[in-house]
Design brief:
Number of domains: 1
Largest sheet: none
Radius of gyration: 20 Å
Number of strands: 0
Number of helices: 3
Mean pLDDT: 84
Low-confidence stretches: none
Helix content: over 70%
Oligomer: single chain
Distance between the termini: 6 Å
Length: about 80
């Protein structure tokens, strides 16, 4: 029965951690957008814009991969549960 609990832990924690990891990227985008409003140097502004785009891409990948992991997982059948015990 311990193996079933560990299998469920891995099954649900990986997608949740992927989605929660995207929240750090969202926070960094917020910081960069706030800093972009007050920045006057063109090189720094360009770096911030590229950083914002890359963090948005990271957010999209993190959330979509987390949802895909969560939604596309096969159900544990009785056969696999008996095999784990």
């Amino acid at each position: 029965m311990q193996y079933v609990a560990e299998a469920n832990l891995v099954r649900y924690c990986a997608p949740i951690l992927s989605i929660l990891g995207a929240s750090f990227d969202i926070y960094q985008v917020h910081i960069d957008i706030t800093e972009l409003k007050t920045e006057v140097y063109l090189d720094v502004r360009q770096n911030l814009k590229v950083s914002i785009v890359l963090f948005y891409l990271s957010v999209a990948i993190g959330i979509s991969s987390g949802l895909a992991l969560f939604l596309l997982q096969p159900e544990l059948s009785d056969w696999s549960l008996a095999r784990l015990e």
